[in-house]
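Margin note: ligand = fe (ii) ion.
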Amino acid sequence: MTTDVVGKVSPHVATSRLTRRRVLFGGAGLAALAGAGTAAYAGAIEPFSLVVTRYAPALPAWPAGRKLAITVIADLHAGGPDMLLPHIRQVIDTANSLQSDIILLLGDFTAWYKFKWEPVADSVWAGELARLVAPLGTWAILGNHDWWHHLAGVRHGLALAHIPVLENDAVLLGAAGQRFWLAGIGDQIAFRLGPGRFLGVDDLPGTLARVATDDPVLLMVHEPDIFPAVPSRVALTLAGHTHGGQIRVPLIWPTFVPSAYGARYAYGHIVEAGRHMIVSGGLGTSIIPARLGVPPEILLVELGA
Ligand SMILES: [Fe+2]
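Resulting structure:
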């Protein structure tokens, strides 16, 4: 995995002045200053940045030499303060600059939390997504926030952008000799039944039953927690949702990961029993408008290299 820093949008640089104090209070003062500086960075700088994280995994179930470059955009969460139009534009421009074969959108398109100070209209974020260009197209799945807060609006936006949504469906893509299946499942926690209780609209067996040839399979899922159920027939599972924990504070960081598995599926390239999954840290924010140690990222996944 390598990471390229693309840049940041509208950074707000925090300044501080340290005055002379007694030694007794010096340590506490420095700690407070460091804490304030870290908080300022997490709220005002990192969420406005953008990196491209590159993976070139060797996959047992992906034929050697079948080259495919995949750009992944997860958890856009369009809305202020940190994912307004200039930042969204930067995401789309950067994604297009990667010139991948296919672009995959892993759900959670809009922000819905009490810190959403400024909305982004569906026509605006959808208009930006409509600018995405790739030879094999742009494909989407839906995330939990799409289901919980804005299902009709997100479906309408994706329809405006002419981006198909794979919900428990699979399509065969690519030229002869280079074909692969792209599969996507419905959201696993689409309905909230109570504290910690959800009902999903996912159907992994039904989705994979649509795979009708021996060609390799890529699987889009929003939440990574389904990974233990994914068979090795799937060459690579791509997930979002976790934001990598969003606030990576040492020791307590796993408690911020929205996963029943804690840190196990929080971020990055995960290999279990020969099965592979890559979890994106995503782009926007939820719960609080801050990121620390998990900058907004676009994935570039290169297969068959
Ligand atoms: Fe999510």
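The chain has one domain: 2-303.
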